[in-house]
Amino acid sequence: MEKVLVTGGAGFIGSHIVEALQQNQYEVIVIDNFSTGHHRNIADLSVNVHKCDITNPEVINLIASIKPDYIIHQAAQVSVAESVQNILFDEQVNVKGSLHVIKGAIRASVKKIVFASSAAVYGNPIELPITTKHRTLPESPYGLTKLTVEHYLQMASKFYQLPYAILRYSNVYGPRQDAKGEGGVVSIFADYISNQLSPTIFGDGEQTRDFIFVKDVATANVKALQAEDNICVNVSSGSTITINELFTIMKKVANTKLNATYSEARSGDIRDSCLSNEETKAILGWSPSVNLFNGLFETIEYASKRNALEKIII
């Protein structure tokens, strides 16, 4: 049985990847510092967990001692707004932490490292949908750190023969996304709606996004393990929706008449984004399987149950 190490494996996306790996008969080991990840996300899975921060150089020795066949690197500072507010912390986690993981991968002679990159590497698009041939001109420190790690992976392949797969995610949503920690717009809306509160939309709400369900992202990561080496692909739905339209659909799913409030657009946010996934379908033999309505239903249902449970505990 091949062994896969997942950094950030107790987090939102990471825990779904752990689940998908186990369903595909891989042995899974998790490294997480639990700053945003939760034990509850992997409590029902039989998985070996190491509590460790990737910014700690000791993670290099830990990875070498685990001797994984593959690494899926999910651990990161994931907030664009936080990257603008705290540029040094963003660099420490996303660049320095990733270099520790890369060094550990080299020491362990892994077969491949799969890296969670982002649509943020492209910046404001020249044309839509965005292919991987599009220029990379990040508009935020977060996007810059992701692009920097991509370049380090290319160097690691050149100098240390470390195979890689870079997966550039569009806006990932789904159950287990923490509105207070790793919060994307869907999880924040779901949290507000489940508490019967009006969410805030930044800007005019006409900005567009490409939303991909977390279980489809997990499947793409599993497929990337056995795909050709040194690939860079988008993981996306390939379609767009405005934030206003998103909120309208979520109101319909939740059967609520709540209205949103509006505030100034945030610095670092991209106006429009849609990633092409045609190349990904061909290279990975993958395609998204969950439509937006069903994905939002599952997300809101999870948020409602989670909030109800937290109120009982309080």
UniProtKB/TrEMBL annotation:
Keyword tags: Carbohydrate metabolism, Galactose metabolism
Any one of the GO BP annotations: galactose catabolic process via UDP-galactose, Leloir pathway
Positions of the NAD-dependent epimerase/dehydratase domain: 4-230
Entries under InterPro entries matching the protein: Epimerase_deHydtase, NAD(P)-bd_dom_sf
Pfam families: Epimerase
Record pathway: Carbohydrate metabolism; galactose metabolism
Classification via Gene3D superfamilies: NAD(P)-binding Rossmann-like Domain
PANTHER family: UDP-ARABINOSE 4-EPIMERASE 1 (PTHR43725:SF53), UDP-GLUCOSE 4-EPIMERASE (PTHR43725)
Family of the protein in this entry: Belongs to the NAD(P)-dependent epimerase/dehydratase family.
Protein name: UDP-glucose 4-epimerase
Source organism of this protein record: Heyndrickxia ginsengihumi
Taxonomy of the source species: Bacteria, Bacillati, Bacillota, Bacilli, Bacillales
